[in-house]
Amino acid sequence: MLAMRPDCERCGTDLPADEAGAFICSFECTFCADCTDALDDTCTNCGGELLDRPARVGQALKGNPASTERKFKG
Fold first, then answer.
1. How far apart (Å, rounded) are the C-alpha atoms in residues 42 and 47?
2. With the CA atoms of 5, 6, 9 and 11 taken in that order, what torsion angle do they form, in degrees rounded to the nearest 10?
3. Which domain does 20 fall in, by range?
4. Beta-carbon neighbour count of residue 2 at 10 Å?
5. Is residue 39 part of a domain?
6. What proportion of the chain, given as a percentage, has pLDDT over 90?
7. Residue 12 covered by a domain
8. Is 41 left (phi over 0), alpha (psi -120 to 50) or beta?
């Protein structure tokens, strides 16, 4: 199950689990749309491709809440 990290690792922008706009690689490194564009859709941590993260909504989000561990080191 995806951790649904709450922020962009590059700029710290909030990325709610129930909204579009987050991008992840196969290791779940998480970036916002602006940073993903700036990185040319490539993860700076592993070199993997960044793809749209699916949203988690409704009962799925209630039963499986998003992570609260922030990754931005700013």
1. 6
2. 160
3. 1-60
4. 15
5. yes
6. 95
7. yes
8. left
> What pTM, to 2 d.p., does this model score?
0.92
In a domain, 65, yes or no: no
Number of domains in the chain: 1
Task: Name, in order, each residue with C-beta under 8 angstroms of 15's C-beta and a sequence gap of 6 or more.
Answer: 5, 6, 7, 8, 21, 22, 30, 32, 53
Of the CA atoms within 13 Å of residue 36, those in its CB half-sphere come to: 21
The amino acid sitting at 21 is G
Per residue, the 3-state secondary structure of the chain, as one string, reads CCCCCCECCCCCCECCCCCCCEEECCCCCEEEHHHHHHCCCECCCCCCECEECCCCCHHHHHHCCCCCCCCCCC
Q: What is the pLDDT of residues 38-69, one digit of tens each?
A: 999 999 999 999 999 999 999 999 999 999 99
